[in-house]
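Record copied across here:
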Amino acid sequence: MYRMRIRKTEYKISLCGIRMKIAVVADLHNSEWHDTIKIIKESRPDIIVCPGDTFGSLAGQERPAKGLTGRYIAESNGNQAGLAFLCAAMKIAPVFCSVGNHEVRVSDNNLKRIADTGAVLLDNSYTILQGGVILGGLSSGGAHGLISTGNPPDTVWIERFGRLGGPKILLCHHPEYWEKYIAGQGIDLTIAGHAHGGQWRIFGRGLLAPGQGFFPKYTSGVHEMSGSVLVVSRGLGNVRGIPRINNPPEVVIIDTE
């Protein structure tokens, strides 16, 4: 199968005068990762973040099958590529993940498997990094359609996170959540994926994205609103049966200052 070359995209973002280098690996979808690791290693980040869909599913066989397809159940008991990526990434820098729409209903077994790699899964939770930066992970509401955004995220948790004192970074799989739920909540930087760059890019715009429909607003790049910044990665994975066109996969490197 033809593989598009992964590119590195770099952004400089203001973060309360705090200098930090962040490698963003979005939408790995339990796929091949060796070229990704090479880019990360060469970039020498302080932390590595995965804003959702590192895996195909995390539901676990022990979970009730209601609302889960056979593919999701089977994938949740595999995940070898995603776990191997986390192990390799941990040898470079601390790794933090949030829950994407493919990963809702995290089983206890998969939670343990992720913890065993040394990576930290932020499931509507946060941690405090060196220098006092607060890093949170907002879990997906479970969108599964081109137009439908599914259930909303935990808005009470967003408000509580926004009230914490200090510079804040939020991993949020869905970029479409930012304008509606996050901007204006006191969160300095939100890092997202999910849109796969719009899958087909025409005249610099993505054609379609789940939860946003055709010609979506948030598929890549840097966006600002109400003192908040959103960085959207085009990610690494493909949507099954729909190739990426004019849209190479990417690893995003964010330099804050």
Notes: The chain has one domain: 7-256. The chain has six helices and 16 strands. The first strand starts at residue 7 and ends at 13.
